Amino acid sequence: MPPIRIGHGYDVHAFGDGDHVVVGGVRIPHERGVLAHSDGDVALHALCDAMLGALALGDIGVHFPPTDPRWKGADSRVFVRHCTALLAERGWRVGNADVTVVCERPKIGPHAQAMREAIAADLGIGLDAVSVKATTSERLGFTGRGEGIAAQAVCLLVAA
What we know:
The protein is α+β, with helices and mostly antiparallel strands. It is built from 5 helices and 7 strands. The strands form 2 sheets. Strands 4-1-7-5-6 form a 5-stranded mixed beta sheet. The chain has a two-stranded antiparallel sheet with strand order 2-3. Strand 2 and strand 3 form a beta hairpin.
């Protein structure tokens, strides 16, 4: 096998009652929360799926099933650190990660730097290897109508 692997992840959560969302490990005040078993951090869930997918280790639901009460309200940064440890056990680490958050609101840009810092810390890599971007869906689909939030992530794994 070549000493690199690529993974892609996608996650979505509907908005529900609440006064904030957690995205990229950062709590953002918002007029809605998300419907989720854990903290519903779409960015970190997508990133975990990318990491796990790169090594064909299943998805986040396999490792942190929503039926398990241990994960009720869990901080998704715990999931990222767990996935990072799984990679290390197998001789891999994240070389870089690129996350795109899709929503009309809340505005992600003002929080992107803090998200990059949180993700870089949990992955144990430099800030220059983590990208967090945001886009809208031009008022199309569920994100455009303000019904929820989505994220995609891509990561490159390198042999440790």
